[in-house]
Write a structure and sequence with these properties.
heterotrimer, A alpha/beta (about 325), B alpha+beta (about 450), C alpha/beta (about 375), B: about 450 residues, alpha+beta, OB fold (Dihydrolipoamide Acetyltransferase, E2P), Dihydrolipoamide Transferase, Chloramphenicol Acetyltransferase, 3 domains, 4-stranded antiparallel β-sheet, 10 helices, elongated, C: about 375 residues, alpha/beta, Rossmann fold, two-stranded antiparallel ribbon, 8 strands, globular, disordered C terminus
Chain lengths: ~325, ~450, ~375
């Protein structure tokens, strides 16, 4: 056991999997020598040498394309996009090839790769360094997506992602990279992809969140202690394939649903969650399923970012509104 | 005095060691001059002064450790040429999220990040209790099954949906289940919701024309049916000499007209009624047949029946006893106008406690007006007319007669009380002076 | 044409002024009037002071992330000085000095780096696009700006910048190729400052120079001493002339050095040696330009002293102003999404404002529990 931050947990997982499997390679812009701009891949090149851990030229399209080719031909690439805002340059490869190769070749060629990138806002950065972009990729068939919110989950999910025969996009909530530590086993363990995590159990309302928002919801819950609300908090962890069963069962119990995400509202992932809940738990609903999200605007630069980021006060407010909704 | 605190310089550093001081106490420094070199894990950071002034105190010695947030140096800014007295080292943050000032373990990586600033903290969160989700959730603990529409219907009908047995699949509560539950909840004749149901005989449709009734008419149908079904009514009638009142009115009406008030007899009648109601409060009450209680109202909200094109509306004058006769005249006028223009507010129609219906405007004398449930009395006012009567001296004179018809709820008001009330009205209206003497 | 005389394939680099301020190529010394020369020098100096102070402010916790430009002032100002007022600049994110020269105010630049979009609302007539973060996309924009200018006969040249690392990007190739096909009046200046964050120049491409990539596009390319403001001026002037004559784009590689870190959150000591940095410090662009001007009797030590004092005050005052400026309002944050926001977006904004109001009133109530006369709107 060791106390690790989210970032250290990912780093530990990479070391562990690279030692176990010699076909795992790690690369990206500045990811080799200096270990990435956030130091997630730090130390890997020193141990595994430049053949397996290397810096690339600045070209997301080439990084993506090469990763796909490497994966087809026997390597297990863990490719990095330096920031989620830059993945769009490689989006052609993501949209058109990454999830499709298996289907296109009826299983002859597959892409067992991991695409990792820092994700989400709240770090007061320049443009394009604060986006939550899971919806763009969720709409592409054949690609799995995970977003851990704790160090324990990060290590287990990274191990799972690397071992997964399908392509996995691993979003790393940069806001909480180093914001707290947790006890993490130093031996190998897997957190299954496709399983949500029950953070709190309750019966009045179900709250679903992921990434940096989980901690914000927990802060909101603390502020509601005297309001006597019995709350069920689900950390989604995997966007695709979504753990519909856990969420639906929870709503069947509580009758009320609040989804919290930092991404833009329209077609943000709450849309999918709420639709599935309505499809499968319509008769159990006591109040309209609600989403608390970013607005349909470009993420503001730091001076205005606070207007866009969902904060614990707003979360607490929405929870109270929903719990008090008269049948 | 300016305190220069060791800020997070963006390298994820939360503490450092003083390597070298470049100034000493008493030195004069300018905004931008380097003050100290601080050694951190990766970088020796050269920290420049944010203000100009004189060094008053150093916050740590060479070799000592300082943490983010500690004061590095105290600078006295007075007496310097450049302005800069209120320079705040922290950026004006929209949301105060300071960088954690926790102790570092020394082996922390340099997280850089290239852009932005991420929060760095040693806060320890609870260990993972990887819960296998399907086992631990009580799947069976589902609440009531019903569509949103059904739920709303239950709420509207005041039915507790959790107590209904559902006839749908998996025990789902259907609309008809709710309606049935609502029906059994109703207590038969005393329920105010709707009129008793009796089958209509059929007509030869060729010989009739059907016209759908308006909403207003429907309300009247309901009100009349309900009152008749619930209240045993009886009407006491009387007419009396109001010549003195007529003279009074004739004398006053022109002067009053200049003030925009149309002075009819109704305001006098209204005033007399409010005074009589204060004396005989039972006429201003309701009878709660469920609790078997007489509910005395503290406000006298006098309803005035108004005839409009679409039908009868009864708005009321709130606290009519607090108004002068002129004010009553104005209020009556306003209500009539608003009724016809349909600009009344809902509250005008609610909470009436006693009603006057003035069919005298059509020349009628006596009638048997229907009480407006849940009130317990109603006064019908006929038209003043000239009639030969025998006066106190025994002579035949022509007098102005005012016919009144008082319908009472015979469950709680007896004929004797009704008679006394009517007598009081007669007293006030036939002798206006007696009204004056009691005016508050 | 000077450009054709310096073959990048032979690694021939064009220089007019050497590191010591001597005119080593008098044949090509540009004829610039005194006023412009001084304006160039002052702008470079302003950029230097503002840049250093921005780094200081960041260390003091008063400024957020900032991308320093120290050492690259000549590569930027030299080129900008050769343009006409109506010409366009499509910058990446390290063109602080270029933007200053083109009419963007220091206040606006600081406001942008301070995190307020209002810093990108330049004045009328200032044909500069906002700072562009996604690498390479600014080249496509320049190509378009140039294309429109040609079609609409605006006589504008579009100049764009990219870094050495950026030339690995697909958009660089695609946009340059595209512009060349249309003979669009544009100039692409590669600021080869030897590093892309931690990645050294030789790891970005196998080509020995970046200028030679022009050959693939079918256009002229030249490598210039990026720290030589006169050389930058001369070549840019020629490229602009070519563009205006309808001869299409030119690729200029400004060979320079990034004296500071990639951004204020980067630590260059990890991936490069101090000796290298010191070597380049001797080639400082401002130093040699100052010697040149002094030799021409256009500048003196006294003037230098005064200028530094002036700049110090100006930069300090400007930053203080920015520090005390207002944050964007809720209107600012929402109202620039569409020309007229659709009803669902307006609804989101109103709901949010309502929430803020009630949460403000709620906290007001909490803090004035004793005051029974509290009235709520």
């Amino acid at each position: 056991m060791a106390e690790m931050t989210l970032l250290q947990a990912i780093n530990a997982a990479l070391f562990e999997q690279m030692r176990k499997d010699p076909t795992v390679v790690v690369f990206g812009e500045d990811a080799g020598f200096e270990g990435g701009v956030f130091r997630v891949t730090k130390g890997l090149q020193q141990e595994f040498r430049v053949d397996r851990v290397f810096d690339t030229p600045i070209s997301e399209a080439a990084i993506m394309g090469s990763a796909i080719g490497m994966a087809i031909n026997g390597l297990k690439p863990v490719a990095e996009m330096q920031f989620e805002g830059f993945m769009f340059n490689g989006f052609n490869q993501i949209a058109v090839h990454m999830g499709r190769m298996r289907n296109r070749s009826r299983g002859k060629y597959t892409v067992p790769m991991v695409l990792r990138m820092p994700w989400g806002g709240g770090i007061r950065a320049l443009e394009h360094h604060s986006e939550a972009v899971e919806s763009f990729i969720a709409h592409i068939p054949g690609i799995k997506i995970v977003i851990p919110s704790t160090p324990y989950d990060a290590k287990g999910l990274m191990a799972a992602a690397i071992q997964d025969p399908d392509p996995v996009v691993f979003f790393e909530p940069k806001k909480i990279y180093r914001a707290f530590k947790q006890e993490v086993p130093e031996t190998e363990y897997i957190v299954p992809i496709g399983k949500a995590r029950m953070v709190e159990t309750g019966k009045d309302i179900t709250v679903v969140a992921w990434g940096s928002m989980v901690r914000e919801v927990q802060t909101a819950i603390k502020s509601l202690e005297k309001d006597n609300i019995s709350l069920e908090l689900i950390d989604l962890r995997t966007i695709v394939p979504m753990d519909t069963e856990t969420i639906v069962n929870s709503v069947k119990k509580t009758g009320r649903l609040l989804v919290v995400h930092e991404a833009v509202r329209t077609l943000g992932f709450a849309t999918e969650i709420i639709t599935r809940v309505i499809e499968k738990a319509f008769l159990n609903l006591e109040a309209p399923p609600t989403r608390l999200t970013g607005f349909d605007i470009a993420v503001p630069l730091p001076r205005g970012e606070h207007h866009h980021m969902v904060d614990p006060k707003r979360i607490a407010y929405e929870i109270k509104q929903l719990v008090n909704y008269k049948v | 005095m300016y305190e220069f605190k060791f800020a997070d310089i963006g390298e994820g550093i939360h503490e450092g060691q003083i390597l070298k001081w470049l100034v000493k106490v008493g030195d004069s420094v300018k905004d931008g001059n380097s003050l100290v070199v601080v050694e951190t894990d990766k970088v020796n950071a050269d920290l420049p002064s944010p203000v100009s002034g004189t060094i008053v105190k150093l916050g740590a010695k060479v070799g000592e450790t300082i943490h983010v947030g500690d004061t590095l140096v105290w600078i006295d800014e007075s007496g310097t040429a450049t302005v800069a007295t209120e320079v705040v080292p922290e950026v004006k943050k929209p949301e105060a999220k300071p960088v954690a000032m926790a102790l570092s373990e020394g082996k922390e990586d340099n997280p850089a990040g290239v852009v932005g600033s991420i929060e760095v903290s040693d806060e320890l969160i609870a260990a993972s209790t990887e819960m296998v989700t399907t086992d631990q959730i009580d799947v069976a603990q589902t609440k009531v099954l019903a569509t949103p529409v059904a739920r709303k219907m239950a709420a509207d009908l005041g039915v507790d949906i959790t107590k209904i047995k559902g006839s749908g699949e998996s025990g789902r509560i259907m609309k008809e289940d709710i309606i049935k539950a609502a029906d059994t909840k109703k207590v038969a004749p005393t329920s105010v919701a709707s009129a008793p149901v009796i089958a209509m005989p059929s007509f030869n449709e060729q010989e009739v024309t059907r016209v759908k009734i308006t909403k207003l008419r429907k309300a009247v149908v309901n009100a009349m049916s309900v009152a008749n079904a619930i209240i045993p009514m009886t009407t006491l009638m009387d007419e009396f000499d109001v010549s003195a009142l007529v003279k009074l009115r004739e004398a006053q009406k022109d002067a009053v007209k200049l003030q925009g008030v149309k002075l009819t007899y109704l305001p006098f009648v209204a005033k007399a009624i409010t005074m009589a109601l204060r004396e005989y409060p039972i006429f201003n009450s309701s009878y709660d047949h469920e609790k078997e209680e007489i509910v005395f109202k503290s406000h006298i909200n006098l309803g005035i029946a108004v005839d409009t094109n679409d039908g009868l509306i009864v708005p009321n004058i709130k606290d009519a006893d607090g108004k002068t006769i002129l004010e009553l005249a104005k209020a009556i006028d306003n209500l009539a106008e608003q009724s016809r223009a349909r600009t009344l507010k809902l509250e005008d129609l609610q909470n009436g406690s006693f009603t006057i219906t003035n069919y005298g405007a059509f020349g009628m004398k006596f009638g048997t007006p229907v009480i407006k449930h849940p009130e317990v009395a109603i006064l019908g006012v006929g038209g003043i007319y000239k009639k030969p009567i025998v006066d106190s001296a025994g002579a035949i004179v022509v007098a102005d007669m005012l016919p009144l018809s008082l319908t009472i709820d015979h469950r709680i008001i007896d004929g004797a009380d009704g008679g006394r009330f009517l007598l009081r009205l007669k007293q006030y209206l036939s002798d206006p002076a007696s009204l004056l003497l009691r005016l508050k | 044409m000077i450009i054709s005389k310096y073959d990048p394939l032979k690694q021939e680099q064009f220089q007019v002024l050497d590191s010591e301020g001597n005119v080593v190529n008098p044949k090509f010394e540009p004829k610039i009037d005194d006023e412009t020369l001084l304006h160039m020098y002052k702008t470079m100096s302003l950029a230097r002071v503002a840049d250093i102070k921005a780094l200081q402010y960041q260390r003091q916790g008063r400024m957020l992330t900032y991308a320093p430009v120290q050492g690259q002032e000549a590569a930027q100002v030299g080129a900008m000085a050769a343009l006409e007022p109506q010409d366009w600049l499509s910058p990446a994110f390290r063109e602080f000095a270029a933007m200053l020269y083109r009419g963007v105010t220091l206040e606006q630049l600081y406001l942008y780096w301070y995190g307020n979009e209002i810093g990108s609302k330049f004045a009328d007539g200032v044909n500069v696009l906002p700072v562009n973060v996604p690498i390479g996309s600014q080249i496509g924009h320049a190509s378009g700006l140039a294309h429109a200018s040609k079609v609409l006969k605006k006589n504008q040249v579009a100049v764009t910048y990219i870094g050495d690392g950026g030339t690995s990007h697909g958009e660089f190739y695609e946009a340059m190729n595209f512009a060349a096909v249309f003979d669009s009046p544009m100039i692409t200046i590669i600021q080869n400052n030897q590093y892309a964050i931690s990645t050294p120049r030789h790891k970005a491409t196998r080509a020995k120079t970046l200028a030679q990539k022009a050959i693939a596009f079918g256009i002229p390319g030249i490598q210039v001493d990026g720290n030589d403001v006169l050389a930058m001026y001369t070549i840019t002037k020629e490229a602009a002339q070519r563009a205006r004559n309808g001869e299409g784009p030119t690729l200029i590689e400004a060979y320079t050095y990034r004296m500071g870190p990639h951004t204020t959150s980067d630590d260059p000591t990890i991936y490069r040696q101090d000796e290298e940095v010191e070597k380049w410090r001797l080639k400082d662009p401002i130093k040699r330009f100052r010697i040149y001007l002094t030799n021409k009797k256009l500048w003196s030590d006294k003037q230098e002293e005064e200028l530094q004092k002036e700049l110090e005050e100006y930069v300090t005052e400007t930053f203080k102003k920015v520090e005390n400026s207002d944050n964007p309002t809720i209107d600012d944050v929402f109202d620039y999404t569409f020309v007229n926001n659709p009803s669902d977006l307006i609804e989101q904004k109103e709901k949010y404002m309502k929430y803020l109001k009630q949460s403000f009133l709620h906290s007001l109530k909490e803090t004035s529990k004793a005051n029974k006369n509290l009235k709520e709107d």
